[in-house]
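TICKET: design request
STATUS: open
ATTACHED STRUCTURE:
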């Protein structure tokens, strides 16, 4: 198989953008569903907080290099 290490950051960035778009769409859906019923459930907020944290870690990390040896 012909894998190029340079493609991985682009794939991760594309996946992160897709997850962010899904998170925004989900937040809009939940906001519409819960309008007038109070706030978003704690489990949902915690879950999306973890997703957001993971995406921030992904974007802040420097590109990895293969281990020598």
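STATUS: resolved
RESOLUTION: sequence designed for all positions
ATTACHED SEQUENCE:
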């Amino acid at each position: 198989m012909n894998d190029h290490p340079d493609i991985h950051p682009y794939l991760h960035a594309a996946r992160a953008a897709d997850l962010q778009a899904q998170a925004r769409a989900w937040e809009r859906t939940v906001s519409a569903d819960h309008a007038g019923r109070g706030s978003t459930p704690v489990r949902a907020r915690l879950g999306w907080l973890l997703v957001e944290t993971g995406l921030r870690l992904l974007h802040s990390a420097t590109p990895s290099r293969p281990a020598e040896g």
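CLOSING REMARK: The longest helix spans residues 7-33. The mean pLDDT is 78.
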